[in-house]
Amino acid sequence: MYNNEMNLFETLLHPDQEEKELGERALVAKAANILQVGEFQILQLAYQDWYGYQMPDPMEMNLFRSYMLRNDVPHWARHYARKILFQDSRGQIDDSKPSYHVYDSEYQPGAQNGTRNFWSAVVMLTLGIGGALALADLSISSPATQFPPYLETTDLKQPDQRPSFGRADSGIEQPSKTR
Predict the structure, then answer these.
(1) Could you give the 3-state DSSP secondary structure of residue 66?
(2) What digits encode the pLDDT tens for the residues 93-120?
(3) CB-based contacts of 69: which residues, under 8 Å, 6+ apart?
């Protein structure tokens, strides 16, 4: 209880301290969003960028605790996040670059030749639909219209019978009027 009261008083006395701490985490979070990776992956990338090798496994847990629970952002992580933000402001970041996704187990690289594959699919679909319409048009001998549904003129002709005025199953018909 005493510790919670102290944190409350510290927050009341220094309200900007929490914003400052979250400001550094916000910097890392913004860089993570730019690269489409998690915050901890940014820390791993930053460590590798700063020291030239991967973060040792025992250090990962300590770094996770200090970053996530105490909001401690290492200097090399701030440096890396600022570097990412600067490169992004100059349009030099390609978030699909595989080196940014080394620690991302769910990363799937984009399809190669995506534009060409898209247009190939559009052409194949157009040819398929066009061919189906052409075959449907050839299968009708005397079409009523040139557009689907393809009905023949015989399908649209009215029967020569005069309509009955009673129910169809009653067998009673009204007498026909002669002119």
Answers:
(1) helix
(2) 887 787 787 777 676 666 667 788 889 9
(3) none
Question: DSSP H helical segments within 36-141, as ranges?
Answer: 39-51, 57-68, 75-89, 114-138
pLDDT tens per residue, range 53-77: 888 888 888 888 888 888 888 899 9
Sign of the Cα torsion 164, 166, 170, 174 reads: negative
| Cα 48 to Cα 101: distance, rounded to the nearest angstrom | 13
Residue whose entry in the numeric block shows the structure tokens 């973060």: 55
Residue type, 109: P
Q: How many CA atoms lie within 13 A of 142 on its CB side?
A: 6
pTM: 0.50
Q: Is 83 left (phi over 0), alpha (psi -120 to 50) or beta?
A: alpha
| Of 138, 137, 141, residue with least CA distance to 154 | 141
Nearest C-alpha neighbor of 63 from the set 90, 81, 41: 41
Q: Cα–Cα distance between 73 and 21 in angstroms, integer?
A: 8
Distance of CA 105 to the CA centre of its chain: 18
Contact in structure between 151 and 136 (CB atoms under 8 Å)? no
